[in-house]
């Protein structure tokens, strides 16, 4: 029985016959996954001679004999048939191949994962595909059998990837305990995790819990290996040795595993620092902190100048961003993978903002000499998305308090808070990042919203994704309303309205009206604002907005000539041109966003009449502020009526600038037709 099937059995025993929508919300599973699990459960019930069948009838999941289902279906007995899903097997293979120092044959792997020879061969192929993305691979020789080979930092990176991915599953601790037994580790994983939790609770530091869980399980497997030598260069070792925040954890690990291995203490410190959000860090000196804060200030200045958006609660925002970027530095420097299960959703939902953040992070990437991955950019994007969205005044809210528990850190928690505040304006939301807050005594919480599976003995808990789709919002509103007001009270409101309507009109189909009213009230609760019209880039950059000029006398002339089409169209006034020039004089060459590409702009109130973008392409680049190292060949002049209205066009432009091939093509164009063809792709 896999973890999804086990979870579905427990849920159905608790709730009985249930709507598919409700099960999707509770379990965090898709309809396809639920159907698949039902098939597996029915096979298991039949093989154990239990005369119960689960089936889907219309929009509901029903049980043929609920009484027998409760009395005869014993999870503990069915556990004997426990097996692993394909996804679980791939990441278990990584841990097993990394940590097991003995000879590993294909027969060993078949026994380990309880699958056939063909399944193991397919699993090895798919695991190889995962590993190659991180520059390591599975190799085989007659002496050692199967092994993961490659750079030691990359190998430890994929081990963290595997433990982190397994931590996102509901049965992670069971899988780790199975791995422990198979690999001969003496210390039970559950005891280790409980003790580590006690130690961390005493700390004043705040961690990104989703990252911390993967790290703690990785440390368990690394410390438990028979032989663990970690080599570091001087700079890597210096950073690890300077850290003193986690001496108590390292001491516990040394005593637990009776081990003191070269480099392992420093590596442990480094890993824990990479998940730390708040807390003093002694690894980096004051110069590093000053440098990072300076980068953040420059990043925020460029963000506000580019978008016309003003960040709220700047001090708190900078504190959170500093924590994210400091941890990002650790991860990139030490090749520690960042796991962000919502990265694809974030990139789709905040496409324009994601691209802009990618541009703003380029100087940091160049400084590190490494590309910043999509998962990292997604976390920073969420932090900015939460920072500039308006928060409704809560002074008039009813005194219903709810806790939002998010294991993914500040940015994720903040964006979820914004969505929930829009859905439930009558609720006062508070955020928590550490699990112990959920169970603290004396709290006022009437509801808990969590992004990972938790249970509370008395407070109703809703498991929600970071980004709520329209359908998820509809289900969630229904569930919360039932808890807050009760189902009967909701029905009473509908009946009261129907009785009022009857006084003035004849109702031909009362049942349909009741359903329509129910849906109407739900939709009124959604608080979903359609985004204002945001023009596409192709609508703004037309042939009359593009100019080709051989050369200009200086950068100021380039800005003036580049803005001329916008002046002639009435999109800007002359003072806007001067404001752009003054911005460069005041703030430096911030308008340079890539290789010889500049985006001059000023604030909307400084002379913008309508949204627009014009383009100037120079044959000979011009130096910005007469700095020969800061030259621009293409000038995109932006005019924004407000931050939101031009965000889509700016984001699309940023996507182009992040694409090195398209940038190179833009710099090589010879006429407006070629230029527009690249822009409008």
Keywords:
681 residues; alpha/beta; Arc Repressor Mutant, subunit A; five-stranded mixed sheet; four-stranded parallel sheet; 31 helices; 56% helix; globular
Protein described:
The structure is a single chain. The protein has 681 residues and is an alpha/beta fold. It has four domains: 3-81, Arc Repressor Mutant, subunit A, CATH 1.10.10; 86-278, no CATH class; 286-388, PRD domain (PTS-regulatory domain, PRD, Orthogonal Bundle); 537-679, Mannitol-specific EII, Chain A. The strands form five sheets. A five-stranded mixed beta sheet has the order 12-15-16-14-13, with helices on both faces. Strands 9-8-10-11 form a four-stranded parallel beta sheet. Strands 1-3-2 form a three-stranded antiparallel beta sheet. Helix 22 (410-423) links the parallel strand 8 (400-405) and strand 9 (427-432). Helix 23 (470-485) packs across helix 25 (510-526). The protein is globular and about 85 Å long. Residues 390-398 and 523-532 have low confidence and may be disordered.
């Amino acid at each position: 029985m896999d973890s999804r099937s086990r979870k579905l059995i427990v849920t159905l025993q608790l709730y009985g016959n249930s709507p598919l929508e409700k099960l999707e919300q509770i379990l965090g599973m898709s309809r396809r996954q639920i159907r698949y699990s039902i098939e597996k459960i029915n096979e298991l019930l039949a093989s154990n001679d239990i005369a119960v069948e689960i089936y889907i009838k219309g929009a509901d999941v029903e049980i043929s004999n609920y009484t027998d289902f409760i009395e005869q279906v014993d999870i503990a007995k069915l556990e004997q048939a426990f097996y692993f899903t394909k996804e679980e097997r791939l990441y278990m293979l990584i841990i097993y191949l990394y940590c097991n120092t003995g000879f590993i044959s294909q027969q060993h792997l078949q026994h380990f994962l309880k699958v056939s020879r063909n399944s193991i061969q397919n699993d090895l192929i798919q695991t190889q595909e995962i590993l190659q993305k991180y520059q390591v691979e599975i190799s085989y020789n007659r002496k050692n059998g199967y092994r993961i080979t490659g750079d030691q930092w990359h190998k430890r990176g994929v081990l963290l990837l595997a433990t982190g991915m397994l931590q996102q599953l509901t049965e992670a601790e069971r899988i780790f305990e199975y791995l422990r037994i198979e690999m001969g580790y003496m210390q039970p994983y559950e005891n280790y995790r409980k003790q580590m939790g006690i130690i961390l609770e005493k700390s004043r530091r705040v961690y990104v819990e989703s990252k911390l869980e993967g790290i703690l399980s990785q440390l368990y497997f690394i410390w438990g290996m028979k032989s663990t030598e970690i080599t570091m260069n001087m700079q890597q070792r210096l950073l690890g040795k300077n850290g003193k925040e986690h001496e108590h954890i390292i001491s516990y690990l040394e005593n637990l595993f009776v081990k003191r291995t070269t480099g392992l203490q420093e590596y442990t410190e480094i890993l824990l620092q990479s998940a730390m959000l708040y807390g003093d860090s002694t690894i980096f000196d004051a110069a590093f902190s000053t440098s990072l804060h300076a980068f953040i200030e420059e990043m925020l200045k460029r963000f506000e100048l580019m978008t016309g958006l003003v960040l709220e609660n700047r001090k708190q925002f900078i504190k959170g961003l500093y924590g994210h970027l400091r941890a990002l530095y650790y991860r990139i420097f030490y090749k520690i993978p960042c796991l962000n299960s919502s990265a694809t959703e974030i990139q789709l939902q905040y496409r324009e903002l994601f691209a802009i953040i990618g541009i703003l992070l380029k100087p940091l990437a160049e400084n590190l000499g490494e590309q910043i991955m999509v998962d990292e950019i997604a976390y920073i994007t969420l932090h900015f998305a939460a920072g500039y969205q308006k928060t409704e005044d809560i002074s008039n809210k009813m005194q219903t308090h709810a806790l939002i528990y998010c294991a993914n850190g500040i940015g994720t928690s903040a964006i979820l808070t914004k969505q929930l505040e829009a859905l439930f304006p009558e609720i006062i939301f508070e955020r928590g990042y550490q699990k112990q807050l959920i169970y603290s005594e004396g709290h006022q919480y009437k509801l808990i919203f969590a992004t990972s599976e938790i249970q509370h003995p008395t407070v109703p808990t809703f498991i929600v994704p970071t980004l709520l789709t329209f359908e998820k919002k509809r289900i969630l509103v229904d569930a919360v309303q039932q808890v807050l007001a009760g189902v009967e009270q909701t029905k009473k409101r509908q009946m009261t309205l129907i009785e009022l309507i009857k006084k003035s009109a004849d109702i031909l189909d009362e049942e349909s009206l009741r359903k329509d009213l129910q849906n109407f009230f739900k939709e009124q609760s959604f608080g979903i604002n359609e985004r204002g019209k945001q023009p596409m880039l192709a609508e703004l950059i037309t042939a009359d907005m593009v100019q080709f000029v051989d050369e200009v006398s200086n950068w100021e002339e380039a800005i003036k000539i580049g803005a001329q089409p916008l002046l002639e169209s009435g999109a800007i006034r002359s003072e806007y041109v001067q404001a752009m020039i003054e911005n460069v004089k005041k703030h430096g060459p911030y308008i340079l966003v890539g290789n010889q590409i500049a985006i001059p702009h000023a604030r909307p109130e400084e002379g913008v009449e309508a949204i627009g973008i014009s383009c100037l392409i120079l044959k000979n680049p011009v130096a910005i502020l007469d700095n020969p190292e800061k030259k621009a060949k293409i000038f995109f002049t932006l005019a924004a009526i407000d931050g939101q209205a031009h965000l889509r066009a700016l984001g699309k432009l940023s996507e182009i600038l992040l694409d090195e091939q398209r940038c190179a093509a833009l710099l090589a164009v010879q006429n407006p037709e070629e230029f527009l063809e690249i822009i409008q792709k």
